[in-house]
Amino acid sequence: MAFTDTQISQLKAKLDSRHVRTRTSNGSSLSYVEGWHVIAEANRIFGYDAWDRRTIATNCIWTAVKGGNHHAAYVAKVRVTVRAGDVNIIREGSGSGEAAAPTPGQAHELALKGAETDATKRALTTFGNLFGLALYDPEQAGVKKVRGAPKSAEPLVLRSATGASISSHENANNFVEALKLAMSEAQNIELLYDVWEQNIKSLRAVNRSASAKPGVVPTLVSHLRACAVALVKEASNGSGHVVRDEAPEKLRLHRSVHQKIDKSVLTIGEPKRIRSKEHLRFVASQPCLICGRSPSHAHHVRYAQSRGLSLKVSDEFTVPLCAIHHHQIHTTGKEQAWWQERNIDPLQVAHGLWQSTSERNPRVLAAEVSSSVLNEDSARADDAAPPLNGSAQREDYALDMPTGSRAPEGQKRERATPKVNRASTSGRCSNTRNPRREPPA
Description:
By secondary structure, the chain is of the alpha+beta class. It has helices at residues 5-11, 35-46, 104-125, 172-184, 189-198, 200-208, 216-235, 277-284, 323-331, 335-341, 346-360, 362-374; strands spanning 15-16, 20-25, 28-33, 51-66, 69-84, 87-101, 143-144, 156-159, 165-169, 254-255, 259-260, 297-300, 318-321. The strands form 6 sheets. The chain has a 3-stranded antiparallel sheet.
């Protein structure tokens, strides 16, 4: 035979049960393959230009008019020729078709088409299982069976924070609404996350459910975050600080997936690393401390706090630097010496900028600081990118202390005109590796 190895392998394959249809005829169930699928398989295996079909004979064997409809029955004989290399393989088949339609033309057309399709399937059946040969076997050994019967969907059980069953739902959307209500009724953040964790298994089932609305799980996650933020705001005492018990054994725990704790209030504490997007945007809107370029990046002063694995310092220790000097300071190994060479104290500038943000948006800053306490201790915040809108209004907030000196503890810094000693602010750096600097006055 001139078929290729690939064609032989395809012809020997089993018929997928998804393509098998059944119908009832004279009280018995018959299995068959639809005509369009048989023709598509012939095109796939033999090639669109490597086989053809020819109707040899047709015969109308019956016509009648019943109940206002015209009936017709046809028999047809079809010859299929498959070109396999230099060899032509010819197979023939016969079939019948019957149809009823309001007009005689439609009835004869439908009956003739049905007879030709039936004859084509009979001719192609001789090429193997994929064309319906496997259906002539009573045991249908050549049909690929579906592994395992489909499991009936179990009801979705809504559970409380303690794991007790509250309600059962057959519909996924009803379960989602009930879970939203349960999360909204949580009295504190511990109970909120307990409710979430107790219903994780049901949420996975909802995600796989075909009856659930698209995007239902992300919607639930957003609702969870909204409930958590609301509980945090309720726990605040109005001054922007989160209420905590004095005794260490009564520290409030929070959970995202694992339990977390504010380690800054422990007896042997760790530095608190505050995250505030509002402050980072404000710092990035300031001109560069070195050359005065705008916009800038919010650079975290690395020596302001103890180092941690993949941890930035707190956002309160950020200063504005342009892209050139931001890259330059990250390539140096001694950041503190880098600042001393330029006679600038970045911690003093950062403190003033932090106070400016506190004065401008105390409520927003308080909410972000509270949220950062409930976030993971390993939050990784990227340096703030320059604002897209370059026309945004920018203001310089400077300090009333001389450059290069630290303010005494507790002294309040007031907003004043810029007094930071910037090197060569009148020009631009032409050499990024060795920018020109003017000596301090």
